[in-house]
Design brief:
It is a single chain. By secondary structure, this protein is mostly beta strands. It folds into two domains: 33 residues, no CATH class; 359 residues, Neuraminidase. Strands 4, 5, 8, 27, 28 and 29 form a six-stranded antiparallel sheet that branches. Strands 14-18-17-16-15 form a five-stranded mixed sheet. A four-stranded antiparallel sheet has the order 10-11-12-13, with no helix packed on it. It is globular.
Length: 394
């Protein structure tokens, strides 16, 4: 066999896939390489942050929520009183190790509990049903109708102030995740004040909200998606997460619920979830193009990392991460944080604690938390974390 001289040229397609052009004396060969190989994703060992002494079922030591004030200072909220907003902080006599809020001053490596000495007002506004957004002068923490601004050491520098809405219902459907900032400096987020109802077949409608004064007043900028946009799901688009890309493109990902025949599944954690909805706008939210994602799940959490990689956390089944190097056109490198069949809320939260390094939290209930036992494993509830390194190879 004769030796061939090769020249390799790399180019990129519009959807982020890589094209390798292999030139040789035999001619030109076209090789398509999966997007997955553009990244190296390395996950560290999971560790328990907080756990119960007994098994308590759904809604206890679950639904974790991260508030990031700096690379090193994180606040972690989670349910201890059941899946009810007004009881999220009420342990109701349960035997729990590690009462929220948990606080880490070293980027997630170690944790102290019950606020770790932070101002109670900061912790109140860092409530699970809140939002946080980095500004040039601190971080805004909100609870739907009130907000404060704190510095990276959690000291209050402004507020609390009353948050006003163009329509009262926006307060009820409050901004759900971290806010995003438009190129003009305005804040945006999604709200689904019109909630679904199984009895009336009403579906969620997700709105785009905008604030021109750092979160003190919110008005409706437009509608992102309604029930007819995601007819396959029982709920319609909700729990939406939004990011503004460097070119001004808005990317929104939503939960859509369960299959339309969900009533045949009696246990919530046994119900299969439906495909998530990806919505994209290139005109500031005036119009949207929608895509049914291959991935199913709840509580999507979208984050653009400092290296430009998009990471999406979601769960149910299990707890998972997926990544995109082409602004959400394609997704790969799926990483399972837990097995698919574990009992979990499926609520995953993420923070970038150093360039290319993520800290991820998730929960399991009525489950063995360490995987090591001599006898029958003890089933408890717990919130866990792990670090994930994400490196772009080219």
């Amino acid at each position: 066999m004769r030796n061939l001289k090769h020249n390799l040229i790399t180019s990129y397609t519009s959807n982020g896939a890589i094209i390798l052009l292999l030139f040789s004396s035999m001619g030109c060969m076209l090789l398509s390489v999966p997007t997955d190989i553009q990244l190296r994703v390395k996950r560290g060992r999971s560790f328990l942050i907080a756990e119960s002494e007994e098994s308590y079922g759904w809604g206890v030591m679950s639904h974790p929520r991260l508030i990031q004030l700096s690379d090193s200072l994180l606040i972690l909220q989670y349910y201890v009183g059941g899946d009810k907003v007004h009881r999220w902080f009420d342990p109701a006599g349960r035997k729990l190790r590690g009462m929220p809020p948990a606080v880490s001053t070293d980027g997630g490596k170690t944790w102290v509990f019950r606020g770790g000495g932070l101002d109670t007002n900061v912790l109140w506004h860092g409530h699970y049903w809140g939002y946080d957004v980095s500004t040039t002068n601190g971080v805004i923490l909100g609870r739907g109708k009130t907000a404060i601004r704190v510095d990276e050491n959690a000291k209050i520098i402004d507020g609390p102030w009353n948050v006003l809405y163009e329509e009262e219902k926006w307060g009820a459907g409050r901004p759900w995740h971290r806010l995003a900032r438009m190129p003009n400096g305005n804040l945006i987020d999604s709200s689904y004040a019109e909630r679904y109802s199984v009895n009336t077949n009403k579906r969620n409608r997700t709105y785009l909200l905008e604030s021109k004064d750092n979160g003190k007043y919110w008005h409706k900028r437009g509608v992102i998606a309604g029930g007819s946009t995601a007819p396959w799901g029982s709920e319609g688009p909700g729990e939406s997460t939004i990011e503004c890309l460097p070119d001004g493109t808005l990317l929104c990902i939503s939960r859509t619920g369960y299959p339309l025949d969900m009533n045949k599944y009696t246990l919530p954690h046994k119900r299969p979830t439906e495909s998530m909805l990806l919505s994209r706008s290139t005109d500031g939210g005036e119009t949207w193009v929608h895509t049914r994602m291959m991935q199913t799940g709840v509580y999507p959490r979208l984050l653009r990392m400092s290296n430009g990689v998009l990471v999406l956390g979601f769960g149910r089944p299990g707890n998972n991460l997926i990544f995109s190097t082409d602004n959400g056109s394609t997704w790969g490198n799926e990483l399972a944080l837990t097995k698919a069949d574990v009992r979990t809320s499926g609520y995953v939260d993420i923070a970038e604690v150093a360039p290319g390094k993520l800290f991820v939290v998730f929960d399991m209930f009525d489950s063995d938390q360490n995987g090591i036992w001599l006898w029958e494993p003890k089933e408890v509830n717990g919130v866990s974390g792990c670090f994930v390194d994400v490196k772009k190879l080219w």
